[in-house]
Write a structure and sequence with these properties.
41% helix, alpha/beta, 11 helices, six-stranded mixed β-sheet
């Protein structure tokens, strides 16, 4: 593999996988599962560099400004394209200033509620919201997070008003949801699962195209008759703009092979993520479609993260 790395122009220097969020997040888990295996295949040290802050924009900008020689890569999630519309003053354009290298996985969001609400389905939530606009509230880890935008998409699609209560992170929001201080929210499967199984939370639906093997009895939101609410979170790896097609093809091939291993599948699935692969061109199309979709929602709902 060393020879292929050289012909693609990959420098001998260590490769930094910049994660623009804190350790322990889904993105961090992707980087730490892929990193050591990529190191073995390329014959280069690979280090994970967490650079959290500004909803991922600080770490992302570091990659945008790096040399496009493969020594600096970004591991991130779909907030990348949401941020382009949420932060009009961004110093970079994620669609123009980054090169998609590899899709790595999908994570799903569950719509859950506190049992005291009495909701048994997504339809129950919408009925209650129509009867008393604004009385029901929902939490999120903060303005502009996928959890926030998922609920705004549901509100927009169903034409209802539910009051947003933003928190500083998932932990505090989950604490108040479990305590009954807030009524409902979207949560990643791996965060919600134990509480759903213990009966402390009621699951109303999953925001994906199909049901999930971990919760086969839980309907998709489309099946629950609330509209086509697909709020799956994609995770992926990017290089700075200007990376050579040979380098991108090499990295894509190696990362896709890593994603097909059972050990990576197991590491991801404990976090409620499912490995997924795509060519760089397919990944770019996904980005462009997703960027348009969230930009339209953010504009129509007048959402701001500032």
């Amino acid at each position: 593999m060393g020879v292929q790395a050289q012909t693609a122009g990959l420098p001998q220097a260590p490769i930094r996988l910049i994660v623009p969020f804190t350790p322990g997040t889904g993105i961090d888990i992707v980087a730490r599962a892929v990193g050591p295996r990529l190191s073995e295949r390329l014959g280069r040290p690979v280090v994970v560099d967490n650079r959290p802050g500004a909803s991922g924009n600080i770490g992302t900008e570091a990659v945008v400004r790096a040399a496009p020689n493969g020594s600096t890569l970004l591991v991130t999630v779909n907030t990348l394209v949401m941020n382009a519309s949420l932060y009009p003053q961004l110093a970079f354009d994620p669609l123009k200033d980054l090169t998609p290298v590899a899709l790595t996985s999908w994570g799903q969001l569950l719509l859950v509620a506190h049992p005291k609400t009495g909701f048994k389905s997504a339809a129950d939530l919408l009925t209650a919201a129509r009867q008393a606009p604004g009385r029901i509230n929902y939490g999120s880890p903060g303005a502009g997070t996928p959890h926030h935008l998922a609920m705004e998409l549901l509100k927009n699609t169903a034409g209802v008003f539910v009051t947003h209560i933003p928190y500083r992170g998932t932990g505090p929001a989950l604490t108040d949801l479990l305590g009954g201080q807030i009524d409902t929210m979207f949560l990643p499967i791996h965060v919600a699962l134990a509480h759903v199984r213990s009966g402390r939370l009621v699951v109303l639906g999953i925001g994906s195209e199909k049901r999930h093997p971990l919760l086969p009895d839980v309907p998709t939101l489309a099946e629950a008759k609330v509209g086509q609410i697909n709020v799956g979170m994609w995770f992926g790896i990017f290089a700075p703009q200007g990376a050579s097609p040979e380098l991108v093809a090499l990295l894509n091939r190696e990362i896709n092979d890593i994603l097909r291993t059972d050990e990576v599948a197991k590491a991801f699935q404990t976090q409620g993520m499912d490995p997924s692969t795509a060519t760089p061109a397919e990944f770019r199309r996904l980005l462009e479609t997703d960027a348009r979709r969230w930009a339209n929602l953010i504009k129509s709902q007048k959402i701001s993260a500032e």
